[in-house]
Amino acid sequence: MSIDDLSTAATSGSDTTVDAAPVDAPPVRRTRPRRTAGSLALQFLPPLILGAAIVGAWYYVSYGLLTPERRFLLRPPHEILQVGFLDWDHFSEILLALWSSTRVALIGLGISICIGFFLATIMSQTKIVERAVFPYMVMLQAIPILAIVPLIGFWWGYGTTSRIAVCVIISLFPIIVNTLFGLQSAERGMHDLFTLHHASRLTRLRKLMFPAAQPAIFAGLRISAGLSVIGAIVGDYFFGQGAVGIGQLLKRYSSRLEGEELLAAVIMSSALGVVVFLFFGWLQGVAIGKWHDSSGPND
User: Fold this and answer.
1) How far apart are CA 223 and CA 9, in angstroms?
2) Could you give the angle at the alpha carbon of 179 between the alpha carbons of 166 and 113, nearest 5°?
């Protein structure tokens, strides 16, 4: 059995014995049941009902609990829609700021992916490096980002570079942890087979460890993608030089008590995090959906 055969067996999760199944056995195809109207209703009705309940509670708080003088604390949904989304001057300002924060988040996430993959790969190959680096990664994750904001400003100024640094600090740890866990999760029996065929470290890493680590890697990417958006907003909130991001808008709207614009900016920030999360979920399905099925037998 060649190394290519071993890697195929590792990614597909099949048994490594060659003659375990008869040659003329027909391939077993797993067919998913078609979604009926009832299953679609069970999928979409609960979030819709919960959303309607949240909007109803929102109206109750705005008109039932708050007096007209204090209603600026929580504007009703239709006013937020009218002022924050239907008014093009306000909405275009939010979109431009959101695009600035999106660029910062993507740059920071890209740097985190490069650093995280490199460190996780080295740590998976050498135990000494893992023991040396991992405590400092935990320490970096445990430091409150607000505590080191002044230091980041002193070192890199108060512009885009500091915002990117905040994104990298926040989103780096999940990539390292999940990638390292995935690289170390390959079956011991497959490692023994690669050793039996005198496979090199690079071949073992490329054809066994990385294919087996893909589910964990994408789980880390989805977590870090959301954290990078948070890092971009937090960094923009404290570092105001350069292009105006969504964090600066949040700061401006809150200081001016512009409740409609403030809540519209918050909703768009949340939508950005959801879009990034869903994008990496789709990318995971494209990359490993053909051979990795995370659903159980009863799904």
Assistant:
1) 29
2) 35
Calculate the CA dihedral of residues 163, 223, 115, 240 and round it to 10 degrees: 0
Asked if 224 and 112 touch (Cβ cutoff 8 Å), the reply is yes
**Is the CB of residue 268 less than 8 Å from the CB of residue 94?**
yes
What is the C-alpha separation between 148 and 168, in angstroms, rounded? 13
With 0-12 CB in 10 A as exposed, 13-18 as middle and 19+ as buried, what is 135? exposed
Q: Where are the domains of the chain?
A: 40-74, 87-288
* CB count in 10 Å sphere of residue 295: 8
- 299 burial (CB, 10 Å; 0-12 / 13-18 / 19+) is exposed
- In 3D space, the residue among 253, 235, 296, 261 whose CA is nearest the CA of residue 101 turns out to be 235
Neighbours of 94 (CB within 10 A): 20
In sequence order, what are the residues at sequence separation of 6 or more whose Cβ sits closer than 8 angstroms to the Cβ of residue 30?
Answer: 293
The CATH architecture annotation of domain 87-288 reads Orthogonal Bundle (1.10)
- Are 116 and 179 a contacting pair, CB within 8 Å? yes
Q: Tens digit of pLDDT per residue, the chain (299 long)? A: 555 555 555 455 444 444 444 445 555 555 555 567 667 777 778 888 888 999 899 889 888 888 888 887 788 888 888 888 888 888 888 899 889 889 999 999 999 999 999 999 898 888 898 888 888 888 888 888 888 888 888 888 888 888 899 999 999 999 999 998 888 887 777 777 777 777 777 777 777 778 888 888 888 888 998 889 888 888 888 887 777 888 888 888 888 878 788 888 888 888 888 888 888 888 878 877 655 554 444 44
The span from the CA of 205 to the CA of 120, in Å, is 12
pTM (two decimals): 0.75
